[in-house]
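lol ok so funny story. i was supposed to be doing the assay writeup but got distracted and ended up predicting the structure for this chain instead. priorities right. anyway since i did it might as well share w the group, maybe its usefull for someone
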Amino acid sequence: MTELIVSSYNIHKAVGTDMRRDPERTVQVIAELGADIVALQEVDRRFGDRRGVLDPLVLRRETGLQPVTLTDRLGTKAQGWHGNLLLLRGAEVEDARAITLPGLEPRGAIVADICLHGQPLRIIAAHLGLLHQSRLLQARFLSKEIEGGDGRPTLVMGDFNEWRLGAGCSLMPLRRGLRAVKSSARTIASFPAQMPMLPLDRIIGCRQAELSDLQVHDSALARKASDHLPIRAGLRLPQARSAVM
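and the output, tada:
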């Protein structure tokens, strides 16, 4: 089994709890994670030309992570797709595509099939809506993306904007779909950053993507850099010869 570090982080457009926009501080927090795979949310400004807030050269230099290029986003000033950006360390990207999620708000996700240390993996990075009904639709949509493909281990992560854990949870369609692919999912409070109470950010492993040691990254810098704390976990993948069924 190969052990990796994976993380999800809503960077809040690099605006911290002190109301200052400080992209360099955001990059420093990402570097603190030491992760091999990072899903970022809110990497683009909300209005105007929606340009990205991070310097790709600084990001690569300070973290060693490479942003996944989405070919259908070339020619725009946005760095992500509906604010989603996927960062990888030492991975070969076989396919990466942007998908639009259903719902009243403009929301999207990235689906990337990669090969990391000789092992195939599908990553779905998403930022779900604020409205309960929209999240229900989006959970159903993502469950189909998980069930599709070639059966490789799959990692789903992002800001799901859901804090409920029981029957009223809008992610129930996603949870039901994941049972068929042997998912591992736990929750941990990550919002608000200065006093985490709500588990809005999630990392879910399924199809032999085994997660361990889920935790918030609670550093002094992280508490200032965004209104969300990053979450991180260990990821174990099967040997390459048995990863794709």
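The chain has six helices and twelve strands. The first strand starts at residue 2 and ends at 10.
back to the writeup now i swear
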